[in-house]
Each structure stands twice: as structure tokens, then as C-alpha cells.
From TrEMBL:
<dbReference type="GO" id="GO:0005737">
    <property type="term" value="C:cytoplasm"/>
</dbReference>
<dbReference type="InterPro" id="IPR000086">
    <property type="entry name" value="NUDIX_hydrolase_dom"/>
</dbReference>
<protein>
    <recommendedName>
        <fullName>Nudix hydrolase domain-containing protein</fullName>
    </recommendedName>
</protein>
<dbReference type="GO" id="GO:0005634">
    <property type="term" value="C:nucleus"/>
</dbReference>
<dbReference type="GO" id="GO:0046872">
    <property type="term" value="F:metal ion binding"/>
</dbReference>
<feature type="domain" description="Nudix hydrolase">
    <location>
        <begin position="1"/>
        <end position="114"/>
    </location>
</feature>
<dbReference type="InterPro" id="IPR015797">
    <property type="entry name" value="NUDIX_hydrolase-like_dom_sf"/>
</dbReference>
<keyword id="KW-0378">Hydrolase</keyword>
<keyword id="KW-0479">Metal-binding</keyword>
<dbReference type="GO" id="GO:0016462">
    <property type="term" value="F:pyrophosphatase activity"/>
</dbReference>
<dbReference type="InterPro" id="IPR020084">
    <property type="entry name" value="NUDIX_hydrolase_CS"/>
</dbReference>
<comment type="similarity">
    <text>Belongs to the Nudix hydrolase family.</text>
</comment>
<dbReference type="Pfam" id="PF00293">
    <property type="entry name" value="NUDIX"/>
</dbReference>
<keyword id="KW-0460">Magnesium</keyword>
<dbReference type="InterPro" id="IPR047198">
    <property type="entry name" value="DDP-like_NUDIX"/>
</dbReference>
């Protein structure tokens, strides 16, 4: 998980995707840019809706966004990465991560990930 300069609690790397990439490619890119990790994208854990203060406009006054969350098998931690000056990565157990989440929808993602992980073992 990563911190955010905009407030307390921890988050998952996430963001929008460019017109020339898939959601999967965007997930891999965001993991590198925000958390400084590389690995193999595994399965989609689920789609989650949330409200974004930065994406409120006349087309979407409620700022509703949808995030597709993926499991990433991390194979490499980078010593330097694009957002390292504003973000710190943290390695946590699932219960620690649930307690540290800034957003309720990310807690739900962790619970779904925990179920996914149990099925894979």
C-alpha cells in the first residue's frame, strides 16, 4: 500500500488509463509510478465504485468513479520510482492493511482479495 500527500491512511496504487492502453496495462503502470513495484498482473479482484472530489464536473457532479482492482504478484521493488518524493510504500498483512485503509471501498477490496488468495492456495 502507499500513502498519499492529500491525507491520512493508506491507499492502493490506482489511477486512470490512457487512450492507448488497457485497464490492465494502466494497473501495471500505476504500480510502477506510485509504489515503485513491478510484477505479474494476476486476476481482477473486482470493480469498485467510489466518489472522487477531483473528478467532479458538470458531466459527473457526484464525482462517481469506478476502479478495477487487480492482484499483482510483485517480483521487484524499485530503488527509485516516479512518485517516490511524494509516496511511501508499506508492506502489511491483510488485517493491518484493513485497519490502515483510508477508504471503505478499499477495505472491501482487501476482503475480496483475501477470499481470492484463499482460493488460490
Amino acid at each position: 500500500m502507499i500513502n498519499s500527500p492529500s491525507g491520512p491512511g493508506l491507499l492502493f496504487p490506482k489511477g486512470g488509463w490512457e487512450n492507448d492502453e488497457t485497464a490492465e496495462e494502466a494497473a501495471v503502470r500505476e504500480a510502477i509510478e506510485e509504489a515503485g513495484v513491478r510484477g505479474d498482473l494476476m486476476d481482477v479482484i473486482g470493480d469498485y465504485q467510489f466518489k472522487s472530489k477531483t473528478h467532479q464536473d458538470e458531466c459527473c457532479p457526484d464525482g462517481l468513479c469506478k476502479a478495477a482492482m487487480y492482484a499483482l504478484f510483485v517480483k521487484e521493488e524499485l530503488e527509485s520510482w516516479p512518485e517516490q518524493s511524494t509516496r511511501t510504500r508499506s508492506w502489511l498483512t491483510i488485517p493491518e492493511a484493513v485497519d490502515s485503509c483510508r477508504h471503505k471501498w478499499m477495505e472491501e477490496t482487501l476482503k475480496d482479495f483475501s477470499s481470492w488468495l484463499e482460493d488460490k492456495m
